[in-house]
Design brief:
Distance between the termini: 29 Å
Number of helices: 6
Order of helices and strands: EEEEHHEEEHEHEEEEEHEEEH
Number of strands: 16
CATH topology: Rossmann fold
Length: 282
Amino acid sequence: MRLISSLLGLALGLTAGLAATGADAGCGAVPEACQTAMGSYHVTLPPDPAPGPVPMLVFLHGAGGSGTATLKNRGMVGAFLARGYAVIAPDGLVREGRRGAGWYFHPGFPRRRDEAAFLRGVADDAAVRFGLDRDRALLAGFSIGGSMASYIACEDPAAFTAYAPVAGGFWRPQPESCTGPVRLLHSHGWRDTTVPLEGRPLRNGQIFQGDVFHSMEIWRDTNGCTLMRPDSFAGDDLFMRRKWSKCTKGSALEFALHPGGHMVPEGWATMVIDWFEGQPQG
């Protein structure tokens, strides 16, 4: 595996009152992203990690985005850095005839790349290169990055420790079943009109986003949950959360709604870190 990259930046100024700084890391002596056999990624390391292997967030960008753009979300990235996480930002493939990059997951279209293999390879490579903890690897993503994370969780749940899609899920036809169990926290905006909770048609009705509530039913079945309704509820000024815990041992399932639209909302990173760290180890 050929690795190329360099120091991409100095200390990062973080927004939202965060005091932590991190450094964009590289894989070589020229200013390029880290390269694997299947694609590229970017990484930012925590400034003062705890002793031992460092946990990682692998975050997938939305449509037309990039790993570089992901690392510019200083509020989200800074929250993870402050808690001692490395942030890994893979690059999707350039979209044919369209601007920017995307992910290949849609059930009705050919897949230009085995995205599960690519993302496993990114996490494996970063773990070796930067001394990260492959057994504490959270896969998350925004919009179609959230959809990609959902499909990986469905098809290959053991690829990552847990999953946290935000503002993106399955597309129609939604999976009839998933491999499980899985640890997953899905977050979505009440006012999201780009990826509505109920889904919507795109390309003049050629493709349809999925229904998030139907997705939660799929996850309940995957995790062997005995109740259709949640068995616990929680809420604060930012999120209303629904949790299913009477499920297969080792699984975890929560649904968090926030009042905003199509976004990674304020407080999402802290909520997800707390949830992730609350999962049993091993």
